[in-house]
Design a protein that fits this description.
Length: 561
């Protein structure tokens, strides 16, 4: 399938946690039935796809990323028929569904692990996981969840051996050296393909294989297995997205995007640079990271998240340089005292000090850069968080739908709720919720919807070439997106002070320029084109013969209704 024809090219992905999204049966836990009832909202908002964090049976020691059965649904969320109903309704609403595929590990309660512990040492059953008599193997692999674990190995009394776990001790790593494991996991891919899912977010892909003397990330054998996954998907002849979660610098994440491997990968380095740019008011490093990402993998195969269900992962200096981490720690309002393992454990709005201008600015970048913008549920409202909850739960609290009890998330009594809805000052669900914001024309929610409408009407933002333009101001990033039919110019000011600058648009000299969001005419393009951007301001301009250049059957004036 040509990349341009794939549904995921430039798609806007909305990430949600089904347990926290909407409770359909009133037991206090969000479920698939509840989510199905919110599809009309998601359609109204204008996202292309939803990515569901794991929905499989699990003891939930790691938010469902500890799975006991890969081919079923957690009973609190529903069953395979409710999944089928969700998928069918999503497809009729024009929304694709992406599932989390956790390849690296299972729950320690998975039948495979229980069988492995009791099986004889060295047997095929035992070797479904990675065992050792020596807990010092692979010593160069960092402990990822260092707040909770001090080693990647855990002693098992029954097996009388150590087992490897790159994450929690409740999540033993599968042994990909064992062909049986590879077959089983390819079978899981087939299982969900047959059920009609539109994509997989491949969790923790770098860690499938291990070797001595390195970080155990992205080894050649890991890439070889991912190519097998791709082959399976291609054989199904379905247009299915394979999206890698690899928290690695751009040059190390890029190899997952070879043509016969995965379609997309999150650009976590870019995420860190976006925050650092807002924190420092300077966009030079951000610009460099963007250019580098486009040099190694041009087009829109990078998925662009701001926040997700994890901490804002900054790492140990490997993902981004130490001074970038320092500028985030020093410059972002709510980052102090909220460090979890390797990053800041807050939601977007508190990190931005509740400033909707910064929320708009960062999303305006996401929605106009080449890639797949990822919107984390609740961030379209500027929802807050609950610091103090355990692990990453502060960022996983119930979606706020209405000012009614529990934010309309559930009719259950408070103690039964999966997590407490936000009532923190400034973020109280009685104020920050979908129903209220829908009614307010200037709300963040309505802004997001408008931006997504504009994006849909401007295919250059989805498919167009990307070029960074010279900027004479250190806080302002300027770039263009050009398709055969149109050229969109973007400028964004990452600082808390206004910025005026001159742009050299001699390349388009004489062309009509028009600001997209509000339809305001600007002077014709020339080499001395002056713009002023307020604090955290940005603009999208159409440059050229705009009336003819907006393709689809939608006239530009519709943008400005
Ligand atoms: C990924 C997930 C995270 C999970 C981990 C282990 O990083 O995003 O939530 O804890 O993998 O599966
Ligand atoms: Ca429920």
């Amino acid at each position: 399938m040509a990349e341009r024809d794939s549904w995921w090219k430039g798609a806007v992905i909305y990430q949600l946690i089904p347990r926290s999204y909407s409770d359909g049966n009133g037991d206090g836990v969000g479920d698939l039935q509840g989510l199905s009832s919110r599809l009309s909202y998601l359609r109204w908002l204008g996202v292309d796809a939803i990515w569901l964090t794991p929905i499989y049976p699990s003891p939930l020691q790691d938010g469902g990323y500890d799975i006991t059965d890969f081919e079923n649904i957690h009973p609190e969320l529903g069953d395979l028929s409710s999944f089928h109903r969700l998928l069918t309704s999503a497809h009729s609403a024009g929304i694709k569904v992406i599932l989390d595929l956790v390849l690296n590990h299972t729950s320690h309660l998975h039948p495979w692990f229980q069988r492995a512990r009791w099986a004889p040492k060295g047997s095929q059953e035992r070797n479904v996981y990675v065992w050792s008599d020596d807990p010092h193997r692979y010593a160069d692999a960092p402990v990822l969840f260092r707040k909770f674990e001090s080693s990647n190995w855990e002693w098992d009394e029954v097996a009388q051996q150590y087992y490897l776990h790159r994450f929690l001790r409740h999540q033993p790593d599968l042994n990909y050296e064992n062909p049986w494991v590879q077959d089983q996991m390819l079978g899981v891919v087939d299982f969900w393909l047959e059920r009609g899912v539109d994509g997989f977010r491949l969790d923790a892909v770098p860690f499938l294989f291990e070797a001595e003397g390195n970080r155990c990330e992205g080894l050649p054998e890991t890439h070889a297995f991912l190519k097998k996954v791709r082959k399976r998907v291609d054989e199904s002849c379905k247009d299915v997205l394979l999206l890698a979660e690899a928290i690695q610098p751009v040059e190390e994440a890029a190899p997952y995007l070879e043509d016969d491997e995965l379609h997309g990968a999150f650009n976590f380095a870019l995420t860190a640079h976006l925050f650092a740019a807002v924190a420092s008011g300077s966009c030079q490093r951000l610009t460099r990271c963007l250019q580098e990402a486009q040099n190694v993998v041009p087009g829109c195969r990078w998925a662009l998240p701001l926040r997700n269900h994890d901490e804002l992962w900054l790492g140990d200096g490997h993902l981004v340089p130490e001074d970038v981490i320092q500028s985030i720690r020093a410059g972002l309002h709510q980052s102090h005292g909220h460090w979890l393992n390797w990053g800041v454990n807050r939601r977007l709005a508190p990190l931005l000090n509740g400033d909707p201008r910064a929320n708009r600015l960062l999303h305006a970048l996401l929605y106009s850069l080449p890639g797949m913008p990822c919107l984390y549920y609740g961030d379209e409202l500027g929802m807050g968080d609950w610091p103090g909850l355990r692990d990453r739960d502060p960022n996983r609290t119930p979606m706020a739908w209405t000012p009614a009890r529990n934010g309309g998330f559930s009719s259950a009594p408070d103690p039964l709720l999966v997590l407490p809805p936000i009532t923190a000052p400034g973020y109280d669900y009685r104020v920050v919720n979908v129903e209220v914001q829908k009614e307010l024309p200037g709300s963040l929610l309505n802004w997001h919807r408008r931006m997504l409408t504009c994006r849909r009407l401007l295919p250059a933002l989805r498919f167009g070439d990307f070029d960074l333009l010279e900027s004479s101001h250190p806080s302002v990033i300027v770039y263009s997106r050009c398709s055969e039919t149109m050229m969109v110019l973007v400028a964004a000011n990452l600082s808390a002070a206004g910025a005026s600058l001159r742009l050299d648009l001699s390349k388009w000299k004489g062309a009509r320029t028009r600001e997209v969001l509000w339809g305001c005419e600007y002077p014709a393009a020339d080499e001395n084109w002056f713009v002023y951007l307020p604090a955290y301001g940005f603009s999208w301009w159409l440059v050229g013969e705009v009336e003819d250049s907006v393709d689809q059957n939608v006239p530009l004036k519709n943008l400005n209704n």
